[in-house]
Amino acid sequence: MGEPEPVGGERLRLKDFEFQRLASGRCWAKVVLSWADGREFRGEAEGVISPAGELRCCADAVVRALERAVQPQMGFELLGVKAVRAFDATVVIVSITARQQGRATRLVGCYLTEGDQPRGAALAVLNATNRILGNVFATR
Question: Which tens digit of pLDDT belongs to each residue from 82-97?
Answer without folding.
Answer: 999 988 899 999 999 9
